[in-house]
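Summary for the lay section of the report: proteins are chains of building blocks that fold into shapes. Here we show the chain for FabD/lysophospholipase-like protein and then a coded description of the shape we predicted for it.
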Amino acid sequence: MLIEHVSSSVDPDEHEAKCLAECEDSKQVYYCSVCEYNYCDLCWDTCLPHKKNLKHKDGRYHEKVNLELTATYDEVFNKVYEGEELDELHIMDRSAKWFGIKQRTNKLGEEKVFLITQQRLEQILDPIAEGSDGPIYPSIVTFLGETGAGKSTLIKALIKASHIGQRVLQAIAEVPVSGSINNSDVPSSGDVHVYGDPRSRHSEIPILFADCEGIEGGNRDPVAEIAWRGVYKKFKDGATELLSDRLTHICTPVIQQYHDNPPAERKITQRSGTVQWTRSLFVSQIYPRFLFPFSDTIVFIVKNAKTIETVVEKLITWAEFAVEHSSNQPTLPSALIVLNKVDTRTDEKDWDPDERTKKFFRRLEPELLVKNKKFQQWTDKWMKERNHKVETVEELIKLYYSDVRVIAIPDAKQTDRLHKQLLSLYGEISSLSIDAKERKTNARMALEYKELLSYLNCAFDHFTEKPDEPFNFIDCAFRKNPIPDDFSGRILSFLIEFMRHLQRTNQREVYGHTCNMIASAILLDSTRNNKIGSPDLIYRYYLTHIKKAIEAYRDLWHPCEYITPTRRKIRCVNVRTYHIKGHQSESGKLIGKGEFQSSIAVGQDEEELGRIYDLIYSSYMELSASCSSELDPTSKNEAQVAGERHRVHVLRHFFRRFSTFFSPTLCLVCIGQRSKYPLECGHAICERCLKCFGSSENGVFYSLRDCPICSTVGYKPPPNEPCVFSVSLNEVAPCVLSLDGGGVRGIIQIEALSEIQKAIGLGVPVIEFFDLVVGTSCGGVLALGLGDKRTDIEELSNNFEKFCRNAFRERIGSNIAGFNKVVRHIHHNSRFETKGLERELKSQLGERPLFGFRSHAANGGRTLATAVVAARMDTTCIVFGSYNPPLEPNPSSSMKYDFFRPERAEGEIRSWEAARATSAAPSYFKPFRHPATELQLQDGAICYNNPAAIAGIEWKKLIPGPNPDTQPDLFLSLGTGISVVKEKVSLRDKKLGWIPFKGVKQAAGIAYDIVEQKLDTARAWEDFLGYQIANPTMERYKRLTVQLDDIRPDLANCAAIPGLRSAAQKHFKREPEIKKIANQLIASLFYYKLDSTWAFDGDESKGFSCKGGVQVAL
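The coded shape description reads as follows.
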């Protein structure tokens, strides 16, 4: 039944009241932002201004706006939060922080600055990646502007508007905290927070909104930081009664998560004499160095801009601090200028982004380059320092940004217009993200999610270690995405390392000097792999690999050959594909604008490279003919003859000219394999070259009289005694040793190995029976002592307690009540001094590179690979090894770790440094900083306290055995003791006892249990057997540990060592598995050597006979 509607002559207040009370049959209610009343759809036209479509005096029309839309924007733009309600929002928003700074004063009154990072991107993107059918390529969109410009509010509006009609999602959506009107001149959230865009969540390009602390916000602490410190102090002091029950309830899980997963801290190195970092400087100069190279779009928010040139000034000033702090950047970000809170009386056409952008640039007259002092400084700089004349302001902006767009956002009074402009803003952001993805794809650097994380962590490490030096994307690419381990990849590695050795950038010269080496590499590889066919056919097969290597070198690795015309000849370092910024020096300084330059001109490179291929072909054919003429079928095989021809006619010529050329990974003798055996001279050769240039009586141990390079050139005398190395045997399965972490409890592992050695009884060190040993934390230190140093097990046992007491030296003042927290706060929350630990490690392991010459390995000892597990500050796993494994992806998608091999010799990690990294347990020792590679490392137990899973992957790379299903002869995992369950539970309850609410305590208990699972070595072993091994032969997989009568001692409780030693000795003397393990190790020395096979009566269907014999690998 229709209700009689109110007349339009009624007072509006009374009209609205009657409408909402009486119009029960209306389907929809709307809001008029001019009248500021709600009307049903039937009553709307009864209001005179609506009926006649009249304008308000401020130019606004009476728009019919969705009521929920109005409520949403009213909450976003108009609702004011103050006091404890604002504190609640800031505390909950803390989990959205990505990175920021922390200032700390040490006991000498010195101000130290730390970069604080949280796993915010993983928190957002992990669920997206897991639910995606393919790779995802996140797009970072950074919102930038002065404090109070409205950055956080606009991000909040974009996210909330995406959930219109979905109230539950809108209520739980993670959004920024807008600034308070009472603190409009103080940064609100501070640092850099990140929020996921709901609209693009399930797309190939999920967008991330990065909310950067406002520039020109001064050095005052942000409101959020003040709120956090106040609440955190009350929790720490046990004074939660001073907080409301609601705030306590909200804060408890946030603080518990902060304790369980503390942010990673990286101390920022500052050169002496430079200006001390303040919050203001950090926000304006350091944040851009992270955000500029990794953002697809910079959304620059401006409110009440006095002149359009002021906007351009701020936009370029921000970029200027960043543009010279990265090189080989794949693409420049786009700039999206948002004019916020624009008067609603603006012409209709100016709301269109295309028209607004045109108008923006029309107002930027060329004369401004002279009239504006800042613009003039920049144009002079580009002319004098970069040899490029700037003619328009638009051209000046686009020297820093790949594109510039402008959009206007009205104030919140006109809801319908606001909504349309926000949709348009999102459309611009989405379009720019898609364009950036296309540009990065063309530049071969579209970073998939996990790759992006790796590059970002590289940048965090780099800018904290060397904040004034540019971050080179190419160097990071080399570390994160190693060159493929095939023939073309090794040729590419050779070209790169040779170019770096030359320290010159003439492309034609690089190819000219390496043609013969590449040709000879083809001959060596083809003869060693028994490639059948004419030399011409063989060359055609390899030509594909050569072209792939040389074209990759040309496009991705060879730097531009531009040199400044000034007296100081400065070279460009940007490569052909990443020459987006123009010419840039090694220090990051822009030195010119122009195209990539090379001695082989772009457009003529195909013709020139064809000539290079012809030279390689001619050299190969000549070497092949020479090899065939000298081949004596009765005495030497073709591979040996090819080796001799290579040594005499190619190596000699090349290394007489480039005698100081070394490689940390590549065998420079053949350049076709990765090096395996480091020599005393500093070179390293592969196994094939050892067999080619060495001699053997049993096929296991090869004697090498001298280095094939040094002996050819003659600049180093041969050693007095030949080196004797053992080689891998295809018929043999390995023996693997895995050592858990556990601090002083490592004495249990030592006693277990000691008892096994006694059970073997051959007078041979037990470690000589293993092919690979992998350790974490204290297990890593023991692995290096046993495997790398070959310290006798009895010596380790005798010196272990002394080592621990010297290593675990508490900091001065750390045991004084009330002062200990201050001491730990100053030193990364670490209890113990690092000097004592480092002194002991250097004393025990020496200063030698982990991958380097070892006399025991060169004197007939077993070739034993040693690896230790560490973690980066973002808790991703990294493995350091004394070997050079094939660069193969991990076979298990669940196993995520990097194997460290430096791209340059100076980046090698020393043995003691690897031990220091793997033992840097949080809260015990400071993280370890490796200066050569900028890596900041901590205890590997964070990732794998039991490294069995890593050992299970690494042995397959090194010694895969005779077939794909090969199981190791023995896989021995040694633990550091099992505690009584009830004691563990009581310890858990003790740690969680301070939490006041039962429900929150239960949630915190779950989080605590998750952390404990990472350290649960027994569970890790079960998982390894269950998920990593396909059909394991259980007798080959053994785990030994000790059941302790009491709770396991603390990692640093040196007083517990005698008791642990006694318990271990008592247990292992009675352990029946010890004798079985000893017998398995002895049996592993024997293998069947197959000489020949033949079919019965020449018919394979009847079966085969084989001939061979049992051999001993000694």
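Put simply, here is one thing we learned. The first strand starts at residue 29 and ends at 32.
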